[in-house]
Write a structure and sequence with these properties.
The complex is a heterodimer of chains A (about 290) and B (about 190). Chain A has helices at about 20-35, 40-55, 60-85, 115-140, 145-150, 155-185, 195-205, 205-230, 245-265, 280-285, and strands at about 100-105, 110. With about 290 residues, chain A is an all-alpha fold. The chains are: A mainly alpha (about 290), B mainly alpha (about 190).
Chain lengths: ~290, ~190
């Protein structure tokens, strides 16, 4: 079983950046996107996200499934929101300003030009955020996470904990697979036979419990090793040195500039209002 | 360490033991998330692995619980390709579940200081309380994504807490029962 995070963007322009840059950009960009409700500006931000994503050179064939899941997840959320719960309302827009397109049979939810525009906007917002998040998953070396968070100000012990978590992944995944195989030899296959909600959870017990108890009991060696090396008594050094280069600084500056610009535009009311597609209003006979 | 969780004065201690248990909890949670079983018609899954979050919180304290939930969920997202930080509010919600379960000695001392049977029941109760309260944080999607509260309630919050409550109520007491003799054997 391959559980380790896949470093698919290895060697790409983005993967050569300081890992802190990729983490900070996600934060800066998410706060930028959160302020925008105008679809035209969101498409602009999506274009920026796509260009950024492309610089990670993540091979499409390896992440087709991931993108499919993203589309299904976002699509389902937005569709349910539109057809079931919107109630034909859009926050900040008086009901009298709506342009009715049709009413959902059985549910009776009115679908208007405004609610449909909101659904498209929500879809784009989610998609934009997912696009900017993918490079964190595939273009940062797993071994760089600990030191990156440490340099971003996370307390040393917790940064070490993050590093340790990544290091535990392969060995614990192997232990888990060993447990699954051992149970199969005894005639128990946890992934087969269970149909109901409860039985599926119950059938996981013979696999989850031994894996967890073994892992905790086996942790004693690591704890002893850390104690013998006086863990936590002073500042620790990291094998990997992180330094921003010119490209890193420019990239951060660009995304910071984007955040500032969209914050100002939002306060001016240019990007913070929902953009209702004129063709939908025309379609509604408005 | 388990005694530390049952001792209110040592709940917030951060030692090498805290860090190692946190890392193991987060790694196991991340790994076992691959065992997710999708709930038809929903965007979430039955996650037997989720029981690890309240268990690690309950057995080893709020810091271990928070780290297991927060980092474990982020790592699960990272492995699946969603990106560790994309759904940061969901990772925080997972972390809060572990944290609240870890505070059980404060609000469930009668159970946490009792027999093994009491502790096992206490684990299920603390885990259930933690799931219901901790996941309230996902309602931040109403602000972050502009989603309707009803949508969040029915497509996200309720399916998640139902699935996770089932996992918690079944698995946490079993994990407590399994861990207690090992703990005694290790001299903890």
């Amino acid at each position: 079983m391959n559980i380790a995070p896949r470093y698919l963007g290895r060697g790409s322009w983005l993967a050569r950046r300081d890992p802190r840059v990729l983490i900070l950009i996600v934060a800066l960009f998410i706060f930028t996107v959160l302020q925008v409700w105008d679809e035209r500006f969101l498409l602009l931000l999506l274009a920026v996200a796509v260009i950024y994503y492309r610089s990670a050179s993540i091979p499409w064939r390896h992440i087709k499934r991931n993108w499919t899941l993203v589309f299904v997840f976002i699509g389902l959320l937005v569709t349910v929101n539109l057809f079931v719960f919107s109630g034909g309302e859009v926050q900040g827009l008086p009901p009298g300003d709506h342009h009715l397109l049709f009413t959902v049979p059985l549910l009776g939810t009115p679908v208007t030009a405004e609610t449909l525009s909101l659904a498209v906007t929500q879809f784009t917002r989610y998609l934009t955020m997912a696009t900017i998040g993918f490079p964190v998953a595939f273009a940062i070396a797993p071994s760089d996470f600990g030191v990156a968070f440490k340099r971003l100000g996370v307390p040393e012990k917790f940064a070490f904990g993050i590093d340790l978590t990544f290091r535990f992944l392969p060995s614990l995944a192997a232990d888990f697979q060993t447990t699954v195989d051992a149970q199969r030899i005894r005639g128990f296959d946890w992934s087969a036979g269970a149909t109901g909600f409860l039985s599926r959870a119950r059938r996981s017990t013979p696999v989850v419990v031994p894996t967890v108890v073994n892992a905790i009991a086996g942790a004693e060696d690591t704890i002893d090793a850390m104690d013998l090396r006086a863990f936590g008594t002073g500042r620790r050094s990291w094998l990997r040195e992180l330094r921003y280069d010119t490209a890193d600084r420019l990239l951060l500056l660009a995304f910071f500039g984007l955040l500032v610009a969209f914050t100002i535009l939002g306060f001016m009311g240019i990007t913070s209002k929902l953009y209702v597609f004129p063709f939908l209003i025309a379609l509604a006979g408005g | 360490m388990t005694t530390a969780t049952l001792d209110r004065d040592r709940l917030w201690e951060v030692s090498s033991r805290t860090i190692v248990y946190s890392a193991i909890g987060a790694a196991l949670y991340g790994i076992l998330l691959v065992a997710q079983i999708p709930i038809p018609g929903s965007t979430v899954s039955v996650r037997p692995a989720f029981a690890l979050v309240p268990f690690f919180g309950y057995a080893f304290g709020p810091i271990v619980g928070f780290f297991t939930g927060f980092v474990g969920n982020a790592i699960g997202d990272q492995i699946s390709g969603w990106g560790a930080l994309t759904s940061w509010n969901w990772s925080l919600a997972n972390g809060f579940v572990g944290l609240i379960a870890g505070l059980a000695p404060v609000y469930l001392s009668r159970w946490t200081n009792g027999s093994t049977r009491d502790r096992a029941i206490g684990g299920a109760i603390a885990g259930s309380i933690a799931v219901v309260i901790g996941f309230l944080f996902v309602f931040t999607d109403a602000i972050l994504q502009g989603m309707d509260v009803g949508t969040i309630l029915t497509t996200l919050y309720l399916p998640v807490i139902i699935g996770d409550l089932i996992g918690t109520i079944i698995l946490v007491p079993i994990l407590v029962y399994a861990w207690e003799p090992v703990k005694a054997q290790l001299g903890r």
